[in-house]
Amino acid sequence: MIKIAKLEIENVKRVKAVKIEPTSTGLTIVGGNNKQGKTSVLDSIAWALGGNKYRPSQAEREGSAVPPYLHLVLTNGLIVERKGKNSDLKVIDPNGQKGGQQLLDSFVEELAINLPKFMLASNKEKANILLRIIGVGQQLHDFEVKEQEIYNRRHTIGQIADQKAKFAKEQLYFPDAPKEPISASELIKQQQDILARNGEKQRLRQRALQIRTAHAAQIQEVGRLQSMLFEAQIKLDALTADMETSQRDVLDLNDESTEELESNIRQIDEINRKVRANLDKDKAEADASDYRVQYDQLTAEINAVRQQKTDLLTNANLPLEGLSVADGELIYHGQKWDNMSGSDQLKVATAIVRKLKPDCGFILLDKLEQMDLKTLTEFGQWLEQEGLQAIATRVSTGEECSIIIEDGYVAGQEGIQLQQSPGEIETGEGWGTTTWKAGEF
């Protein structure tokens, strides 16, 4: 990984002249009071490495007659300079490779010199950056679209099931009503059949009565007509036999009542209303049950998609153990971004920045006064463990600071001059003739 080995800054914003050798790993904290030039150091590094889009709007120090001067030595041997009236970029490669800003862009990650751009991004943007660099963004997006589609279907099914259950609960139920609606024509036909059968029975009674009358008349006729006794006796015997048969036929005859059918016909509308109410209630309960089954099936599908998402991220090459994405947001050890500690937020941001360009081994951090000393120490130890370099500012003059900036100078380097005055001859190597205060944390 490429890091910053040495840097010289002169006449940039509040900086008068500064030389710094950051520690190769861990935190190099540039401390000092407000308006002394701390942030100017970071802005200068960002300008030197990131190009003119990071050039401060008022780059030249107020009151200076000498233009800004930036000189950085990187651990890969590159020397980056900006000097002269136009602050032109010059990249010196000891291996002879030529290049300017394009060469720097090949290994300098923009977010490393502009970490606030990542820190202030929305939660969704942060997550998208991570998903893009680990190569699962589109797959996760497809899973999330599928999950949302199934979720919406399940939600609709659940609403319908609830409505059906509510409708069934509100319906009256009549346990004494028949299972199917009653047909008026069928009842009338049944009534007509009974009346027909009763009519036949009445005809048989009338016939029996006629036979009895004839029998009585015939007895009289037998008495009157002795001469016709033999013929009458034969007829009498026949009639007697018919009478006996007829009597037996009608002895057990009972007329069927149509009272119930007549009542049903009168009450058919009320009965059918009850039947329809019962059928509606039964159907609503059946529909509710069916929709609940569909709801459970969709729930199983959602859980399967969520498991696929979990497996996708579990098997992905994530830049930090415990880091993941859930519902479109970064999650670190179970906490969303706004619930992470300041140290954890910096760990996550730094790990993602490193993943973007693995060759970029440094980051710039401004305003670390928000962290207490314990958090600073933990973050510094994590940086050392990961082999990363961080150059940071902090409003403080305490022992946690690697160097202190006072009135545009590093404390102990007051009055140094980095650029030659016109006509002056350089006699030394520059780095060897100055007393350095290396940043150690």
CATH superfamily of the domain at 4-108 and 357-410: P-loop containing nucleotide triphosphate hydrolases
The percent of residues in helical segments reads: 40-55%
Mean pLDDT: 84
> What is the number of beta strands?
13
For the record, what CATH class of the domain at 4-108 and 357-410 applies? Alpha Beta
| CATH topology category name of the domain at 4-108 and 357-410 | Rossmann fold
Briefly note the structural class of the backbone. alpha+beta
Low-pLDDT sequence parts: 422-441
Overall radius of gyration: 52 Å
> What's the oligomerization state?
single chain
Reading side by side through the largest sheet, how are the strands ordered?
2-1-4-5-6
Q: Biggest β-sheet: count, sense, barrel?
A: 5 strands, antiparallel
Shape: rod-shaped
Tally the helices: what do you get?
11
Nutshell version of this structure?
With 441 residues, the protein is an alpha+beta fold. Among the domains are: 4-108 and 357-410, Rossmann fold (3-Layer(aba) Sandwich); 146-288. The protein has helices at residues 38-50, 101-105, 110-113, 115-119, 123-134, 137-170, 184-224, 229-251, 259-314, 342-356, 373-386; strands at residues 4-12, 15-20, 26-32, 69-74, 79-83, 88-92, 323-326, 329-332, 335-336, 362-365, 389-395, 403-406, 409-410.
